[in-house]
Known about the structure:
Helix 1 crosses helix 2. A hairpin with a 5-residue loop joins strand 8 (283-288) and strand 9 (294-300). The longest helix is centred in the middle third of the chain and has 17 residues, at 103-119. This protein is globular. By secondary structure, the protein is an alpha/beta fold. It has helices at 8-21, 27-39, 43-48, 56-70, 75-79, 103-119, 140-151, 167-179, 214-217, 240-252, 268-278; strands spanning 81-84, 87-90, 129-134, 158-164, 186-190, 202-207, 253-262, 283-288, 294-300. The protein has a 7-stranded mixed β-sheet with strand order 5-4-3-6-7-9-8, sandwiched between helices. Strands 1-2 form a two-stranded antiparallel ribbon. It contains 11 helices and 9 strands. Helices cover 39% and strands 18% of the residues. The structure holds S-adenosylmethionine.
Amino acid sequence: MVDASGTVASLVRDAAVRLTASGSGSPRLDAELLLAHVLGIDRMGVIAHPEAPVGPGAQAQFEADVARREAGEPVAYIRGFREFHGLAITTDARALIPRPETELLVDAAVAEVSMRLTASPRPSGAPALRVADVGTGSGAIAIAVLAALRTRRMAEHVMVVATDVSAAALDLARENAVGHGLADRMVFVEADLLPPVVDPPYAVVCANLPYVATAQMELLARDLSFEPRTALDGGPDGLDLVRRLLDLLPDALAPDGVAYLEIGADQGALVVAAVSHQLPGWGCAVQADLAGLPRLARVDRGPAGGTEAARP
Ligand SMILES: C[S@@+](CC[C@H](N)C(=O)[O-])C[C@H]1O[C@@H](n2cnc3c(N)ncnc32)[C@H](O)[C@@H]1O
Protein backbone atom coordinates (compact mmCIF):
# COMPACT_ATOMS: atom_id res chain seq x y z
CA MET A 1 0.00 0.00 0.00
CA VAL A 2 1.44 3.41 -0.95
CA ASP A 3 1.53 5.79 2.03
CA ALA A 4 1.07 9.41 0.88
CA SER A 5 3.05 10.69 3.87
CA GLY A 6 5.96 8.27 3.48
CA THR A 7 9.42 9.40 4.49
CA VAL A 8 12.66 7.56 3.86
CA ALA A 9 12.73 6.38 7.50
CA SER A 10 9.11 5.19 7.60
CA LEU A 11 9.37 3.33 4.31
CA VAL A 12 12.60 1.60 5.33
CA ARG A 13 11.16 0.68 8.74
CA ASP A 14 7.94 -0.78 7.33
CA ALA A 15 9.76 -2.67 4.59
CA ALA A 16 12.28 -4.08 7.08
CA VAL A 17 9.40 -5.44 9.20
CA ARG A 18 7.93 -7.15 6.12
CA LEU A 19 11.27 -8.52 4.99
CA THR A 20 12.01 -9.86 8.47
CA ALA A 21 8.69 -11.73 8.37
CA SER A 22 9.49 -13.11 4.93
CA GLY A 23 12.79 -14.58 6.14
CA SER A 24 15.43 -12.17 4.84
CA GLY A 25 18.69 -12.44 6.75
CA SER A 26 19.42 -8.73 6.22
CA PRO A 27 16.04 -6.97 6.16
CA ARG A 28 17.13 -3.42 6.95
CA LEU A 29 20.07 -3.50 4.56
CA ASP A 30 17.82 -4.91 1.83
CA ALA A 31 15.24 -2.15 2.42
CA GLU A 32 17.88 0.59 2.37
CA LEU A 33 19.48 -0.73 -0.82
CA LEU A 34 16.14 -1.09 -2.59
CA LEU A 35 14.98 2.39 -1.61
CA ALA A 36 18.32 3.91 -2.59
CA HIS A 37 18.01 2.19 -5.97
CA VAL A 38 14.51 3.55 -6.56
CA LEU A 39 15.62 7.06 -5.57
CA GLY A 40 18.77 6.90 -7.70
CA ILE A 41 21.07 7.59 -4.75
CA ASP A 42 23.49 5.45 -2.77
CA ARG A 43 22.67 3.78 0.54
CA MET A 44 24.50 6.48 2.52
CA GLY A 45 22.03 8.99 1.09
CA VAL A 46 19.14 6.97 2.51
CA ILE A 47 20.79 6.71 5.92
CA ALA A 48 21.72 10.40 5.99
CA HIS A 49 18.23 11.74 5.12
CA PRO A 50 15.65 9.78 7.15
CA GLU A 51 13.07 12.61 7.16
CA ALA A 52 13.12 13.21 3.40
CA PRO A 53 9.68 12.69 1.81
CA VAL A 54 9.33 10.06 -0.89
CA GLY A 55 6.97 10.81 -3.76
CA PRO A 56 4.12 8.48 -4.76
CA GLY A 57 5.82 7.22 -7.94
CA ALA A 58 8.96 6.21 -6.08
CA GLN A 59 6.89 4.67 -3.30
CA ALA A 60 4.96 2.54 -5.78
CA GLN A 61 8.18 1.29 -7.36
CA PHE A 62 9.67 0.61 -3.93
CA GLU A 63 6.54 -1.32 -2.97
CA ALA A 64 6.87 -3.50 -6.08
CA ASP A 65 10.58 -4.14 -5.39
CA VAL A 66 9.94 -5.03 -1.74
CA ALA A 67 7.26 -7.49 -2.86
CA ARG A 68 9.82 -9.18 -5.15
CA ARG A 69 12.27 -9.37 -2.26
CA GLU A 70 9.55 -10.80 0.01
CA ALA A 71 9.13 -13.57 -2.57
CA GLY A 72 12.83 -14.36 -2.12
CA GLU A 73 14.37 -12.72 -5.19
CA PRO A 74 17.91 -11.51 -4.40
CA VAL A 75 18.45 -7.77 -4.06
CA ALA A 76 21.14 -7.92 -6.77
CA TYR A 77 18.62 -9.23 -9.32
CA ILE A 78 16.06 -6.59 -8.35
CA ARG A 79 18.60 -3.76 -8.55
CA GLY A 80 20.21 -5.34 -11.62
CA PHE A 81 23.76 -5.06 -10.39
CA ARG A 82 26.12 -6.01 -7.59
CA GLU A 83 29.25 -4.20 -6.40
CA PHE A 84 32.23 -6.48 -6.84
CA HIS A 85 35.85 -5.46 -6.33
CA GLY A 86 34.80 -1.81 -6.62
CA LEU A 87 32.88 -2.34 -9.87
CA ALA A 88 29.17 -2.47 -10.64
CA ILE A 89 28.62 -5.86 -12.28
CA THR A 90 25.28 -6.28 -14.05
CA THR A 91 23.40 -9.21 -12.54
CA ASP A 92 20.36 -11.16 -13.63
CA ALA A 93 19.05 -14.72 -13.65
CA ARG A 94 21.50 -15.71 -16.42
CA ALA A 95 24.39 -16.05 -13.95
CA LEU A 96 25.45 -16.32 -10.33
CA ILE A 97 25.62 -13.08 -8.37
CA PRO A 98 29.32 -12.43 -7.67
CA ARG A 99 30.16 -12.90 -3.99
CA PRO A 100 32.54 -10.84 -1.81
CA GLU A 101 34.63 -13.93 -0.96
CA THR A 102 35.59 -14.23 -4.64
CA GLU A 103 37.48 -10.92 -4.32
CA LEU A 104 40.24 -12.97 -2.64
CA LEU A 105 40.75 -14.87 -5.89
CA VAL A 106 40.78 -11.63 -7.88
CA ASP A 107 43.42 -10.10 -5.58
CA ALA A 108 45.59 -13.20 -5.89
CA ALA A 109 45.30 -13.25 -9.69
CA VAL A 110 46.07 -9.53 -9.99
CA ALA A 111 49.15 -9.91 -7.77
CA GLU A 112 50.29 -12.96 -9.77
CA VAL A 113 49.90 -11.31 -13.17
CA SER A 114 51.45 -8.02 -11.98
CA MET A 115 54.43 -9.87 -10.55
CA ARG A 116 54.98 -11.72 -13.83
CA LEU A 117 54.68 -8.61 -15.98
CA THR A 118 56.98 -6.65 -13.68
CA ALA A 119 59.59 -9.44 -13.64
CA SER A 120 59.46 -9.86 -17.42
CA PRO A 121 58.19 -6.69 -19.07
CA ARG A 122 56.70 -7.36 -22.50
CA PRO A 123 57.94 -5.34 -25.42
CA SER A 124 55.10 -3.80 -27.39
CA GLY A 125 53.81 -6.27 -29.98
CA ALA A 126 54.80 -9.31 -27.85
CA PRO A 127 52.06 -11.92 -27.41
CA ALA A 128 49.78 -11.19 -24.48
CA LEU A 129 50.07 -13.11 -21.22
CA ARG A 130 47.18 -15.57 -21.25
CA VAL A 131 44.77 -15.91 -18.34
CA ALA A 132 41.72 -18.18 -18.19
CA ASP A 133 38.56 -17.53 -16.18
CA VAL A 134 36.85 -20.93 -16.13
CA GLY A 135 33.12 -20.73 -15.41
CA THR A 136 33.07 -16.98 -15.88
CA GLY A 137 29.34 -16.48 -15.15
CA SER A 138 28.74 -12.72 -15.15
CA GLY A 139 32.40 -12.22 -16.08
CA ALA A 140 33.07 -10.74 -12.65
CA ILE A 141 36.49 -12.31 -12.06
CA ALA A 142 37.89 -11.63 -15.53
CA ILE A 143 36.59 -8.06 -15.55
CA ALA A 144 37.77 -7.25 -12.02
CA VAL A 145 41.24 -8.65 -12.76
CA LEU A 146 41.51 -6.67 -16.00
CA ALA A 147 40.13 -3.49 -14.43
CA ALA A 148 42.72 -3.69 -11.63
CA LEU A 149 45.49 -4.31 -14.19
CA ARG A 150 44.26 -1.36 -16.26
CA THR A 151 44.86 0.99 -13.32
CA ARG A 152 48.46 -0.34 -13.31
CA ARG A 153 48.70 0.15 -17.10
CA MET A 154 49.16 -3.58 -17.55
CA ALA A 155 45.85 -4.72 -19.06
CA GLU A 156 47.13 -4.21 -22.61
CA HIS A 157 49.60 -7.07 -22.05
CA VAL A 158 46.95 -9.56 -20.94
CA MET A 159 44.26 -11.58 -22.73
CA VAL A 160 41.61 -13.40 -20.68
CA VAL A 161 39.81 -16.42 -22.11
CA ALA A 162 36.46 -16.53 -20.31
CA THR A 163 34.63 -19.85 -20.57
CA ASP A 164 31.26 -21.16 -19.47
CA VAL A 165 28.91 -24.01 -20.37
CA SER A 166 26.07 -21.52 -20.26
CA ALA A 167 25.61 -19.45 -23.43
CA ALA A 168 23.28 -17.15 -21.48
CA ALA A 169 25.95 -16.48 -18.85
CA LEU A 170 28.49 -15.74 -21.59
CA ASP A 171 26.09 -13.19 -23.08
CA LEU A 172 25.92 -11.45 -19.70
CA ALA A 173 29.72 -11.62 -19.32
CA ARG A 174 30.10 -10.03 -22.76
CA GLU A 175 27.69 -7.24 -21.79
CA ASN A 176 29.64 -6.58 -18.60
CA ALA A 177 32.96 -6.59 -20.47
CA VAL A 178 31.62 -4.07 -22.97
CA GLY A 179 30.15 -1.96 -20.15
CA HIS A 180 33.53 -1.77 -18.45
CA GLY A 181 35.44 -1.12 -21.68
CA LEU A 182 37.39 -4.38 -21.44
CA ALA A 183 35.89 -6.53 -24.19
CA ASP A 184 39.00 -6.11 -26.36
CA ARG A 185 41.06 -7.88 -23.67
CA MET A 186 38.70 -10.88 -23.48
CA VAL A 187 37.69 -13.89 -25.56
CA PHE A 188 34.43 -15.67 -24.71
CA VAL A 189 34.23 -19.41 -25.27
CA GLU A 190 31.29 -21.74 -24.69
CA ALA A 191 33.08 -24.83 -23.40
CA ASP A 192 33.06 -27.59 -20.84
CA LEU A 193 35.72 -26.13 -18.50
CA LEU A 194 38.44 -25.24 -21.04
CA PRO A 195 38.52 -25.47 -24.81
CA PRO A 196 40.61 -28.48 -25.89
CA VAL A 197 43.38 -26.68 -27.77
CA VAL A 198 45.43 -24.44 -25.53
CA ASP A 199 48.19 -22.77 -27.47
CA PRO A 200 50.09 -21.06 -25.98
CA PRO A 201 49.20 -22.37 -22.53
CA TYR A 202 47.86 -20.20 -19.74
CA ALA A 203 50.11 -18.39 -17.29
CA VAL A 204 47.22 -18.14 -14.82
CA VAL A 205 43.98 -20.13 -14.60
CA CYS A 206 41.25 -18.72 -12.35
CA ALA A 207 38.17 -20.73 -11.52
CA ASN A 208 35.23 -20.24 -9.24
CA LEU A 209 33.40 -23.38 -10.31
CA PRO A 210 30.26 -24.77 -8.65
CA TYR A 211 31.35 -26.33 -5.34
CA VAL A 212 28.15 -26.91 -3.36
CA ALA A 213 27.57 -30.57 -2.52
CA THR A 214 24.38 -31.82 -4.18
CA ALA A 215 22.79 -32.81 -0.86
CA GLN A 216 23.35 -29.26 0.44
CA MET A 217 21.51 -27.72 -2.50
CA GLU A 218 18.08 -28.40 -1.01
CA LEU A 219 19.10 -26.89 2.35
CA LEU A 220 20.33 -23.64 0.91
CA ALA A 221 18.65 -20.34 1.51
CA ARG A 222 15.64 -19.55 -0.64
CA ASP A 223 17.56 -16.75 -2.38
CA LEU A 224 19.86 -19.31 -4.01
CA SER A 225 16.91 -20.95 -5.77
CA PHE A 226 16.78 -17.85 -8.01
CA GLU A 227 20.34 -18.45 -9.21
CA PRO A 228 21.20 -21.03 -11.91
CA ARG A 229 21.64 -24.51 -10.48
CA THR A 230 24.51 -25.14 -12.93
CA ALA A 231 26.36 -22.34 -11.15
CA LEU A 232 26.17 -24.04 -7.76
CA ASP A 233 25.84 -27.83 -7.82
CA GLY A 234 29.29 -29.43 -7.63
CA GLY A 235 28.27 -33.08 -7.29
CA PRO A 236 28.35 -35.43 -4.28
CA ASP A 237 31.13 -33.69 -2.31
CA GLY A 238 31.04 -30.46 -4.31
CA LEU A 239 34.37 -31.02 -6.05
CA ASP A 240 33.39 -32.86 -9.26
CA LEU A 241 34.19 -29.90 -11.51
CA VAL A 242 37.32 -28.92 -9.60
CA ARG A 243 38.66 -32.47 -9.98
CA ARG A 244 37.92 -32.45 -13.71
CA LEU A 245 39.70 -29.13 -14.05
CA LEU A 246 42.73 -30.46 -12.15
CA ASP A 247 43.01 -33.20 -14.79
CA LEU A 248 43.26 -30.54 -17.51
CA LEU A 249 45.94 -28.43 -15.83
CA PRO A 250 49.05 -30.32 -17.06
CA ASP A 251 48.14 -29.40 -20.66
CA ALA A 252 46.49 -26.06 -19.96
CA LEU A 253 49.13 -24.44 -17.75
CA ALA A 254 52.46 -23.07 -18.91
CA PRO A 255 55.45 -24.78 -17.22
CA ASP A 256 55.55 -22.01 -14.61
CA GLY A 257 51.79 -21.47 -14.68
CA VAL A 258 49.53 -21.34 -11.65
CA ALA A 259 45.85 -22.01 -11.00
CA TYR A 260 43.72 -20.25 -8.40
CA LEU A 261 40.59 -22.15 -7.43
CA GLU A 262 37.88 -20.90 -5.11
CA ILE A 263 36.70 -23.66 -2.78
CA GLY A 264 34.11 -24.11 -0.06
CA ALA A 265 35.16 -23.34 3.51
CA ASP A 266 35.13 -27.06 4.38
CA GLN A 267 36.99 -28.27 1.27
CA GLY A 268 40.62 -27.33 2.03
CA ALA A 269 41.77 -30.86 2.96
CA LEU A 270 39.73 -32.40 0.13
CA VAL A 271 41.32 -30.22 -2.54
CA VAL A 272 44.85 -30.82 -1.20
CA ALA A 273 44.14 -34.57 -1.32
CA ALA A 274 42.74 -34.29 -4.85
CA VAL A 275 45.87 -32.47 -6.10
CA SER A 276 48.18 -34.96 -4.43
CA HIS A 277 46.22 -37.87 -5.94
CA GLN A 278 45.65 -36.46 -9.44
CA LEU A 279 48.77 -34.35 -9.90
CA PRO A 280 51.64 -36.12 -8.14
CA GLY A 281 54.50 -33.77 -7.34
CA TRP A 282 52.42 -30.62 -7.82
CA GLY A 283 51.94 -28.04 -5.08
CA CYS A 284 48.65 -26.99 -3.53
CA ALA A 285 48.56 -24.20 -0.96
CA VAL A 286 45.24 -23.24 0.61
CA GLN A 287 44.75 -19.62 1.61
CA ALA A 288 42.27 -18.41 4.22
CA ASP A 289 39.95 -15.43 3.81
CA LEU A 290 39.65 -12.57 6.31
CA ALA A 291 37.35 -14.72 8.44
CA GLY A 292 40.08 -17.36 8.65
CA LEU A 293 38.20 -19.83 6.44
CA PRO A 294 40.09 -21.73 3.72
CA ARG A 295 38.67 -20.34 0.47
CA LEU A 296 41.39 -20.32 -2.17
CA ALA A 297 43.62 -23.10 -3.48
CA ARG A 298 46.82 -22.18 -5.37
CA VAL A 299 47.95 -25.04 -7.57
CA ASP A 300 51.24 -25.21 -9.47
CA ARG A 301 53.78 -27.72 -10.69
CA GLY A 302 55.84 -27.32 -7.52
CA PRO A 303 59.61 -26.93 -7.20
CA ALA A 304 60.28 -30.17 -9.10
CA GLY A 305 58.08 -29.17 -12.03
CA GLY A 306 55.32 -31.63 -11.24
CA THR A 307 57.16 -34.83 -12.05
CA GLU A 308 56.07 -37.86 -10.08
CA ALA A 309 59.64 -39.15 -9.83
CA ALA A 310 60.55 -36.04 -7.88
CA ARG A 311 58.06 -36.74 -5.09
CA PRO A 312 59.64 -37.34 -1.66
C1 LIG B 1 29.96 -20.46 -8.99
S1 LIG B 1 29.56 -19.81 -10.59
C2 LIG B 1 30.84 -18.57 -10.70
C3 LIG B 1 30.55 -17.46 -11.65
C4 LIG B 1 31.63 -16.36 -11.65
N1 LIG B 1 32.92 -16.88 -12.03
C5 LIG B 1 31.72 -15.71 -10.28
O1 LIG B 1 32.71 -15.95 -9.58
O2 LIG B 1 30.81 -14.96 -9.90
C6 LIG B 1 30.13 -21.12 -11.61
C7 LIG B 1 30.03 -20.91 -13.10
O3 LIG B 1 30.57 -22.09 -13.73
C8 LIG B 1 29.77 -22.43 -14.83
N2 LIG B 1 29.95 -23.86 -15.12
C9 LIG B 1 29.33 -24.92 -14.55
N3 LIG B 1 29.79 -26.06 -15.08
C10 LIG B 1 30.73 -25.71 -15.99
C11 LIG B 1 31.55 -26.44 -16.90
N4 LIG B 1 31.51 -27.78 -16.94
N5 LIG B 1 32.38 -25.76 -17.72
C12 LIG B 1 32.42 -24.40 -17.70
N6 LIG B 1 31.66 -23.66 -16.86
C13 LIG B 1 30.82 -24.30 -16.03
C14 LIG B 1 28.36 -22.05 -14.43
O4 LIG B 1 27.53 -21.89 -15.58
C15 LIG B 1 28.62 -20.77 -13.65
O5 LIG B 1 28.56 -19.65 -14.49
